Every structure is written in C-alpha cells, then in structure tokens.
Amino acid sequence: MKKKNLADAACPIARALDIVGDWWSVLIVRDAMTGTRRFNEFAASLGLARNILAARLKKLVAGGVLAIVPASDGTAYGEYVLTPKGQALFYVLVALRQWSQDWVAQAGEHVPQLLDARDGLPVQPLQLRAGDGRLLSPHEVVLSRT
Fold this sequence. Notes:
This protein has helices at about 10-20, 25-35, 40-45, 50-60, 85, 90-105; strands at about 65-70, 80. The chain is mainly alpha-helical.
C-alpha cells in the first residue's frame, strides 16, 4: 500500500509526518544527532537494507532535515549532517524518549538517562509553558482555527 502524500495537508503535524513520519527516518535523525554521518555508519547502526536507507536519506535531504557535505576526512565520500531544521527535531526526540520511558519501558529495564553535559545531572522532563511562565496541561490549551 502506497503511503498518502501529506505535504499539502492543512495540519502541520501531518506535514511534519510527511517528512519524518516513518520509524526509520526518526531513527536516522536520532543517529545523526549522536554523530553518525556516513551511509555505512547508518547502515551498521540500524541494520537497515541499503535500498531503504538510501530512500530515507534521500527523503530527509529533500525535506531539508539533512544535508550532504564533503567528507570531514577529505575522502571523496559525502557525509550527512543535520540542518538547523533537522537539529530542531531534538526536542521532538527528547519528548518521544521521555514518553517512552514513562509509558513503554518494561519494569526493571535499565534505560540510559539524558544527562546535562555540564554537570552530569539528569535533564528534567519537557514542559509546555504559557507566555507568563505557567505550566500548562493538555486541557488548558486550545487550537485557534483562525
């Protein structure tokens, strides 16, 4: 079954999912955030068929999430790096990770924690705040249709 193209959808979430909405793309972005840059590195990390990896990388480049740059070691190979648009997915991945830790992790499972690089302390859960700094819950947010 061919996936529906959501690039022109009215919903911004649907448009975002058109670019990064499959699990391989999200895992490619995750690996890029931890320093993976070369095709073979992504393939080894993900265990993904080369044709599927190539297609996902191509889509992430076309979507402006990744860019291809000359290899840092001067070889003829290109490397994939996150663009500012791709780097902005950091918060999405942290939110997904924190949700998974709370709702999906198995009892007794050791899940590596995200730590503040400066002091080594665990990062706090992401929170949504109002313009005045108040912490907001889902029932305190409305979607403007105008």
